[in-house]
# Entry
Amino acid sequence: MMSDVVEMARLMQGNEAVVEGALAAGVRFYAGYPITPSTEIAELMAERLPALGGKFIQMEDEIASMAAVIGASLAGVKALTATSGPGFSLKQENIGFAAMAEIPCVIVNVQRWGPSTGIPTAPAQGDVMQARWGTHGDHPVIVLCPASVREAYLLAIRAVNLSEKYRVPVILLMDEVIGHMRERVVLPRAKEVEVIERKKPSVEPKDYYPYRPGDDGVPPMASFGEGYRYHVTGLVHDEKGNPTTDPQVAESLLLRLHRKIYDHLDDVVSVEGYQLEDAEVTVVAYGAAARSAKRAVKEARAAGIKAGLLRPVTIWPFPEKEVAELAGRVRHIIVAEMNLGQLKGEVERAVRGRVGVSGVNRVNGELITFEEILSAIREVALDAQSG
Amino acid sequence: MEETLEFRLSGSGGQGLILAGVILAEAAIREGKNAVQAQSYGPEARGGASKAEVIISEGEIDYPKVVLPDVVLAMSQDAADKYAVRVKKGGLLIIDNTYVKNIPATSARVYALPISRLAREKVGKEMVANIVALGILAGLTGAVSRRTLEEAVLSRIPRGTESLNLKALELGFEMARTFTVKVPA
# Structure
């Protein structure tokens, strides 16, 4: 049997796993402004990067951190930053620039209670919509959401890979629970990790069109300093990178930015199902809330209720097809999240009224409990019996 | 569900409870078990309330927070007041009576021990009270073996403090054997 894992189990923290995953994926630049509950990522990057020939910079603020990450990526280095709500807000303008100028980069947001400075040490999932729409304009973005320490490692790698492959900012949307908890992990060997590099131009500098896409909608990217001179701007630009207000160019640029992600949903979107085969009531949950949901489903099963769990691993683009497919076979969907229903709205949109959707929500700064999800499952099961 | 043990280590910031939780989880993993360690803390770095939770199980641990602990360690009066009532019936409440003067009513078996005082007097540094407490906890519950706990301690402490910490652990096991004072519930 081929095995892709090292035998040795380790006790690892979620934030630590992000660092190890990012480094395994080839990240060699970090610029950030430490903030609870993401601080361990900065701390560990500061320790690990210099030893690998990488660079760590503590910047004056989050805006500058995001700008430095963009600059590093333009120079050809895989770059990442980590923050939490207040810092994530500040980074939005430059995240939009990265989306527009198609600069690969990864932003980790370890969510804490908000709005504003809220509760620095308390978990929440209030940034689901901000991750999608935080920066202005009709931009594409990819958002991944880990539910375990091991998955924090794997999704850090995947975030870097997807950002390089599609030249798009990728957001690793964590929460305080997953960021701070330590658990037993068995990780793949570093050399068995699939690492994707951005496409480079194969033409001479004089023939290079920095924004002329390949068949996949993604233009090859030259690193600054390699002899390819080109213009990078947040303004609408032509294939040469020069600004224009031409409506046709503007439209085709925006459509291409979308197409390069939405034409590859099979590659970008993933979900995990648990006990879905015969499930009559299905919980949809992501991140830390999915841990509570899984225990609730197990306890419901033990009590004879046919419950299941659908866990979006990619939350943006929203797994519309996977959720819509549930509508045809389950009696009811419960969306459990630590906000007032941000992803529930997307679930409702996907199922188009073909099945009932209700929410279990917790916004007091504590992890949503399995008991409250279990009692929602029981209610649905009782209704079904009496109905 | 498979056999699961839940621990809540509580006290004040600066008492090293999160490190104690990490070491306990590390020891469990070294024994081939699953373990999850989660924490919560007040806004202050030192002096605020601090709580580390550890779940040890033979099976998969989905929900990462302690529901009703089998074992509670309380190293401050505040912690004892808050958590003494939330222990599994017949579970263990280990009290540091250096700081906890009033033991709240509880359905747990209570062990009141001068953890911080003896760390100071017998090991020479109150700083290692967390390691003394780990020795007591392991000695009383058998949740992890002494050998793996020693390995776990050595893997998680600063270099140069090995003998100090091993001495603290030894004191903890000794207290578990001889110093236990059972207080009626």
Remarks:
- Residues 1-6 of chain A have pLDDT under 50 and may be disordered.
- Residues 149-166 of chain A form the longest helix (18 residues).
- Chain A touches chain B at residues 9-11, 120-121, 177, 180-184, 288, 291-292, 294-295, 298, 367, 369-370 (CB under 8 Å).
